[in-house]
Each structure stands twice: as structure tokens, then as C-alpha cells.
Amino acid sequence: MPYPDEREIHLPGGIILNGGPNADGVEFTLATLDGWGSPGGTGGGQQRSGAHGRTAPKQWLKPRVMTATGLIKAPTHLLRQQAEHQLEGVLGLDLFDLTVVDAIPLKVQAQRVGDMSRSDDTDLRTTWQAELEAPDPRRYGVTPKSLLLSLPQSMGGNTWPGETWPETFLGSTVSGDGGADNDGNITAPVTVRFTGPLVVPQLLNVTTGQSVSYVATLAAGEFVDIYMTTPMVALLMGTADRTGYVSTAGGGPWGLQGAVGEQTGQNHIAFRAASGTGTALLQWSDTFQ
Fold this sequence. Notes:
Region (Disordered): 34-58
Protein name: Minor tail protein
Radius of gyration: 26 Å
Shape: globular
Order of helices and strands: EEEEHEEEEEEEEEEEEEEEEEEEEEEE
Organism: Kribbella deserti
């Protein structure tokens, strides 16, 4: 799929494809990026016995496979070769951030899985091609989102005695609930941080009926991060494994539903605990398939 020149692709090391000449007068361009659409499903259906069609198992996205092609233009032969080596190093075997800047900027973590080929058109110009793969095929918004919640509580309020009294004046109430929007079109993975003091804290996605609980006690200042991935991971104070203390309901690791069809990307989140005065922090990014 060809990309117009005005659509920039940002890579590590300050390389911007289609961003115009850099300070050395070197220009990196991207002509095509095949595979930026929605990847295919895993399949796995079987022919129905004695009936038309096949079974319809749950589908998952395959890894995102991309083929990128482009040009390098430089004012000197030396700068052209230096730019080639720089691009080869960035489009490497380790995961790196690849961001496509559009009206909705999106990024993936990709790595090179095939050869990176190039052809020296002239001393000042090279055509290149690279085979890339994103193990996690989902595309993420570049601006992270978060929701900080406190436990439900009532504050203030007094009772005044008198001949026709007592009369109670109510204070304000903190509900412990909030809204988390995923403007993407697929479920957004989330990270949950419980910060103590808390006893058996729980975060519930009321919209989907799913929840996660930390079945333990957090002292004041202690925190546990729960990464709602497969497999799920929980780390106390960023280092100690506490995955065994995590309990989920409603289908294992969960996230925030996206805007698909009549389904909105609005998620009602509730924070509860057996006791305590700590907080829950939910973090995510808009997620697209």
C-alpha cells in the first residue's frame, strides 16, 4: 500500500521516513508499507460433520507482517553509505518502536525477520527493502491514558440536636467509580496499580463484567503492578513476583472494550476493597487491530 510523502514514519535514533532532509542533508523516504492494515485471523475451523460449512472457533490476530520499501538520498557518497548502515541498525533484530504519523498516530513494536536488501541506484541514492514483523499485531495510540480512583467514602456531615431535631446535614460522597474510554476498535490491554494501605483491593470493569483482585494486604506506600497480559504478571514494588496473589473473574486477563459496531469504547470502572484508604491506577492506550 503506497504512502503519500506527507505521512511520516518515526523510527529510533531520530530517523524520520518522509520527513525531508535531516541536518546532514540526508533524506530517508518510505514508498510502501504493506501490512499496516488489520492482520488475518488464526483460523482453525473444522468441516461440520454431515452439514454445510465449518465450525467457528474464537479467532485471534496473527502477528503483523510488514514489507517496507523506500529510498535514501544523500549529498555525498560517504553520507549515503553512513545512512544505509544507520537504517540497517535501526531496522534490527531487536524490537523497536515504529510510529506512523497520521490524523490518528499509531505505533507498533516491530523487528526485522527477513533480509534487508538495497540497490545502489547511484552514488547518492539507494533503494532499500526490509521484511518486518510485529509479534503483537495491535496498533496503539501514541498518547497513554490513565484513570486514578480512590475507594468509596463519605466526607463531612453533622447531626444537630434540638426540640424538633435531630437533623442530619449530609456531606459529599466519593463513589470509587470512573470512566475509561478506548477509542480504538479492539480490546485495549491494561495495567493496574494498587497502592496501599489496602486489604484485598479489586478493580471491576462493570461494562464487561470482568474484575481483577489482589488477594493480599498492601501496607501504606506499597504498590503492586498487575499486567493484564497472557500470561498475566504481578510485581510488588516493581520486582517481587506476586502473580499467585491475583484473581480474575469473567474470563481471565481483561481490558477495555473498543468502539465496534453498536458497542461504544466507554468502560465503567469500579474500585473496591475489604478496607483501606489507598488508590487504584488504570493505564492503557487506544488500541486498533
